[in-house]
Amino acid sequence: MSLIAWIELIASGLITGGIYALVALGLNLQYGLMRILNIAHGEFLMVGAFITWMVQTQFGFSPLLMLPLSFFLLLALGIAVHWLCFRRLTSTSPNLDIFEARGLMVAFGLMFLVQNFVSYVWGGDLRGYDYLSEPVRFGEIQFAGNKLLVFGLSLLFSIVLIVLLRMTLLGKGVRALMQSPVGAQLVGIDTQRLHPLMFGIGLGLSGIAGCLLSMAYTISPSMGEPYTVTALIVITLGGFGSMGGALAGGLLLGVIEAVGMHFTNPSLKALLSYVVFISVLLLRPEGLFARKKRKA
Amino acid sequence: MSKVNRRAVIKSAVALGAVAMLPRAKAQSGPVRVGYSMSRTGPWTGGAQTSQEPNYLMWAEQQNALGGLSVKGVRRPIELISFDDRSDIETVIRTYEKLMGSDKVDLVLPPWGSGANFAVAPLANRYGYPFLAPTALSSRLVELKLPYFFLLLQQPAPMVTAMIEMFKANGVKTIACIYVDDLFGLENFSALRAALQGSGITMIEDKSYPGGVKDLSPVLRSIKDKNPDAFVGFTYPPDTILASRQSKEIGFNPKFFYASVGTAFPLYKNVMTPAGAEGVMGMGSWNSKTSAGAKAYFDAHVASQKKEPDRWASGAAWAGLEIITAAVAKEGLDRKLIRDYVAGNTHKTILGDIRFNGSENVGTPGTVGQWQNGEFEVVWPQRLATAKLNPSKPAW
Fold it and tell me: Could you tell me the sign of the dihedral formed by the alpha carbons of B235, B240, B243, B247, in that order?
């Protein structure tokens, strides 16, 4: 295999990996921070994709304009969902493990609810539109413009989130909450406000991911579930709660899948992903990129 | 409390008996109950809601507008009894068991897809319900020799043979193939290998992929490096679009680009744009130029369902309903007689004359379609062509 072919292969893996990372970020925020294993994450991503598709095809707006709109719509929806479901669960669950189990059940319910709501509103048809699909050349290598845009923005949002968490006071509060929820409350961090906000931001990120994905892929009400599964693999790879880990994990999974598919068969893709997933769970359960073992 | 006397009891019993007799009396003039399960949620929805259910709804609407379905000359309204199967085979089976076993509907219409039809066909046969499947492609279904089961689509062997004949006639020497690793993909791939024998065409690459795949570019890049004359994909709608988009992305421009389910969907033209779709080939067997009936059907579909039918299985779905309508008009609702009518006659449909050898439609031959100027044209075989073949696809 020539050098160019290798570069193409790795780059296409990185592009797919960037998308995986973006999808995983929101879930990581919710699970890493609040132990809400939001199985409906992919469904909210699908809502973002459908809103973008609808506005693009009905009004001809650029999908890029829909990025902030998707984010804030899903943010508001996230805060509402938290207020309706998880706030009550937090106050009635005797401990974090029971909260996690109950949260998982609620998220399953949300998954069916959102999926059926979208089917009801927009129907079950496969949808899509053409946006920046012209290839962009770099010497002998070329990639679709929309994929490069999705990859660039995925990296941008991941880095912005990492910087926000590292550099700002809000980020410090969030990280404190990740390390020790009780300790954070003791030093005066307002968890009553931070939790819904972070859950909302997690959903907002899924809205952004959906918006970006709709530029490059066809969408349907059933598109969400595979993304949730991928996001779970990615955050396990990267370490729960670690945003840098999610980014690195996503990119790594993308490259492993691309190389694996090239040398074996795309039918073995799921096998490759799960071998990586199970190996990490067995050998390094705290994640490949987490420094310390996370305490429950 | 008033005293209950014998006369009152007898009167009540007679009244009850009369009420009990009512459904039977009503069944002779009441609605024709037609049951089916259909994917309205889950991964099959795209195909089901493009090629199949819109036709069922339109059929009931059209017949009811005429006063109902003609049952040996008596018009009776159609009552559709349908359930969402959530793209789940178990649910499909349970639904048809309920429809045929306990609800005892008058007729059933098939679900979407080869896998679901494969699961339900033996059941329908056991209950003695004629089953005219418009979206099943499997020679194994033919081999089961189920007397009540009929396949409307041209099966893998004729479809693939038509494609290979077209390739041969246009000087193709090498092909590369990807196929989805389920019944549909595997059967078509086997048919392709059989059709290639002695054809002088070599398969230089073949790879399977799982349904719901998100990235085919590693495979397409390795195919591009081998530079085949033709690319063949036995693909489902999302993968058909993914393979097309990613071929455009990497600049893979074979002379012939053939993909399967979804190529004939209006969605393909919308997503790829008419210029992007130009020259792309796929499984398609009709368009509004095929016959006057096809034109009338196309226009009625757009008016009633507010969307275009696809140029492959939608036509077969409507042809199946045309056959059922004629069968019921002639034989009534006796399912054995309907089955014999379907099996023993040549049927005039929008796709042309359909007749069955066992379960297989042997009336309409295998065909190849191609996008030309925003329309999916039938280009092979030449006697059924609605437009001349463009033997060199323009670059994406």
Answer: positive
Q: Does A115 touch chain B (CB under 8 A)?
A: yes
The reply to whether residue B208 touches residue A125, judged by beta carbons under 8 angstroms, is no
Q: Which domain holds residue A64?
A: 3-225
- CB-defined contacts A:B, below 8 A: 126
Q: Which residue has the higher pLDDT, A35 or B322?
A: B322
Our count of domains for chain A comes to 1
List CB contacts of A71: < 8 A, sequence separation 6 or more.
A204, A205, A207, A208
Which residue out of B85, B182, B245, B272 would a mutagenesis test of the A interface target, given it has the greatest number of A Cβ atoms within 10 Å? B245
- Do the domain assignments include residue A99? yes
Whether B213 and A130 lie within 8 Å, measured CB to CB: no
| Contact indicator for B315, B53 with CB cutoff of 8 Å | no
Mean pLDDT per 10-residue segment, chain B (396 residues) = 58 56 55 96 87 96 97 96 93 96 96 93 95 91 94 94 96 96 91 95 94 87 93 94 93 95 92 93 94 96 94 96 97 97 96 95 95 95 94 93
The answer to the question of residue A100 being in a domain is: yes
A293, part of any domain: no
Residues 6+ apart with CB under 8 A from A150: A15, A18, A19, A212, A213, A215, A216
* Closest chain B C-alpha to A128 CA, distance in angstroms: 6
Candidate from A5, A221, A226 with C-beta closest to B212: A226
pLDDT tens for B46-83 read: 889 999 999 999 999 999 999 999 999 999 999 999 99
Domains and CATH numbers, chain B: 32-155+289-361 (3.40.50.2300), 156-288+368-384 (3.40.50.2300)
The verdict on a CB contact (< 8 Å) between A13 and B41 is: no
Say whether B214 and A16 touch across the interface (CB within 8 A): yes
Q: Is residue A288 part of a domain?
A: no
Bridge partners of residue B107, in order along the sequence: B34
Q: Which of B46, B178, B213 sits opposite A220 (nearest CB)?
A: B46
Average pLDDT over residues A65-89: 93
The pTM of this model reads 0.83
In chain A, residues with a C-beta closer than 8 Å to the C-beta of B208 are: 265-267
Question: Is the distance from CB of B214 to CB of B245 less than 8 angstroms?
Answer: no
pLDDT of residue B79: 97
